[in-house]
């Protein structure tokens, strides 16, 4: 008996070889009908025998193309039409968008084989790609995913490429970025003033410049990289000086996984992450004597390593390089450069040469960053390779736009049961970064096909995102979400859990409901509401933001809170105050409460302890002191420092003055810095466990959720997981979105959506 079935596929189903895959499956199972791209996904109608249709649907579910992802499939019977063959029809642009744009994917093995095959017509062509790899999101103008809507529209296909493009049995069937040397993009080399090089081989000339120690700007998938030889101290120092990036670690790209294993320790899970088609920067433990410059990550015991993910990068490494610095091409707090002219202006005086091409990048997309904890990947920056694949939520929500916080910003849109997050926007300190926020919001409107009338933002009235929300036109309601509540809801959404949990939210700062700077919070939370059950005891930040740049100020306050009037004696013995004139200043500021806001921040507590240990008195980037403390503590046995839990009107207060007292005693009697740094980490894990146990005893809750930027610290996260699991808790950590502020927009969106859905006051 012949029947006809209509199938509607939603998800990552365009630009990934899905239609030729469907075509091949239909032909294999002797089915007639058609497949068509639409704004809301892919529609397939198949006509044939019932067993053939069942076999077809089964194979489609099991044998999807490598980077396809079906999030929803709806089938229904249709009237039989008597079709005798299966064909691919022209895309339909009508309807409401419900399409998942594919993230950019690393060059596949098939294309790599052709790239280095002297007999192949694409031999050494730096823009080789197919339906299984290459640029996707970064070349999009609008949906559906057809060449006319990409930056490839200005490159008409040559006869041979057109033949591949139109052949459903070919790997490049409707591969929208498809091209070859005869019809596709081309490289050019420019000097620092934008003058075109007359070299017949721009790539070889650029490699020569790298060997000579020059800083070369390389145009990639989602933007430019600034590159130098990773083995040259002088070249790395030159790049740091020009970019005003004195000490912050630089990412490196290495030739292959074998070389990565020579310079870093790698477990199987880390190897899989490094070699995945997303190709993130993976944080790995550096080996002693690694043959790369010490200037890449001074003071750290880790390296941020990635593998080549574009044909151009593979060709560069084929020229004899083993490791190159590949850092985002931008100035501090500015977005990554994407345009040739833009790069020449913004990178003038930084890059000596520019290796560019004439395929436009339309969407800025930084490299993603990840690590593994307990054999599980944890994203620290979710961007290229992952975005804009949606997070699948436990239930559908009303449409919400969430604008994120002020640091590590991302934008999120909720649509049905899916959360779409933008590429990493970053810190909103500059006009360029704020323009990028607007650019990213427009991008999310395009790829989701919706413009929500409800907007979620942070509770902080001074954040640019909060001001932006209040300045938007056509907004029905603005829903503010407290920063640390958003952290916890983000992790809940990440793990698909709902209901009340014990939320442990640890970070640098977030505007609290009482007007103070929070950052060490123990919450009872669900998606809609939270109660602050406990927190780190408040301590002042002398000089306000100056204390963030100069952790010795926090160290001085911790001594004063612990030893009272004797604090100066201990500060002198520890030599943490840079100049004598600061002693009366600290007393005056804290006594009179002048520019010394209170905070409960664990991030700032890390800064203070790093100062007391002599690890870091001043910082050049956010989180530097904590990162160096983690590096010092790694692999060192220790006994935990003591702590105290006090019960007050605000709930349980976690007091670390006993830890300060003990640490000072041990340091003055000659205990190694490494063991004291490890003792502090162990103290935190023990303290968090005891706080969680007290909350469990009071509430009966057994699920603990860990979120906030401090859980980028692998040692802290692993210690907390071990302690809480040992105490019998069900523990949830981030996996798909970062624990830092890059995940906040997801928490804001879900919290706002839950409140709207529940009919609660906004």
Please provide a written account of the structure:
With 762 residues, the chain is an alpha/beta fold. Among the domains are: 2-88, Alpha-Beta Plaits, CATH 3.30.70.100; 187-369, DHBP synthase, CATH 3.90.870; 536-696, Nucleotidyltransferase, domain 5, CATH 3.30.420.40. The chain has 23 helices and 29 strands. Strands 6, 7, 8, 9, 10, 11, 12, 13, 14, 15 and 16 form an eleven-stranded mixed beta sheet that branches. The protein has a seven-stranded mixed beta sheet with strand order 26-27-23-22-21-28-29, sandwiched between helices. Helix 13 (483-495) packs across helix 23, helix 15 packs across helix 18 and helix 18 (602-612) crosses helix 19.
Q: Can you give the helix content as a percent range?
A: 25-40%
Percentage of residues in DSSP E strands:
15-25%
Strands, count: 29
Shape descriptor: globular
Task: Write the topology of this structure.
Blueprint: E1 2-12, H1 18-28, E2 32-38, E3 41-49, H2 50-62, E4 69-78, E5 86-88, H3 109-115, H4 159-166, E6 187-191, H5 202-211, E7 216-219, E8 224-229, H6 233-243, E9 252-254, H7 257-263, E10 264-265, H8 268-275, E11 281-286, E12 302-306, H9 311-317, E13 323-328, H10 340-346, E14 353-357, E15 369-373, E16 376-381, E17 391-402, E18 412-421, H11 431-448, E19 454-458, H12 464-471, E20 477-481, H13 483-495, E21 501-511, E22 517-525, E23 530-536, E24 539-540, H14 546-549, H15 552-563, H16 567-574, H17 582-592, E25 598-599, H18 602-612, H19 624-633, E26 644-648, E27 651-655, H20 657-668, H21 673-699, E28 703-707, H22 714-726, E29 730-732, H23 744-758
Parallel strand pairs: 2-5, 7-14, 9-12, 11-15, 17-19, 19-20, 21-28, 23-27, 28-29
Antiparallel strand pairs: 1-3, 1-4, 2-3, 6-14, 7-8, 8-13, 9-13, 10-11, 11-12, 15-16, 17-18, 21-22, 22-23, 24-25, 26-27
Helix pairs in contact: 13-23, 15-16, 15-18, 15-20, 18-19, 19-21, 20-21, 21-22
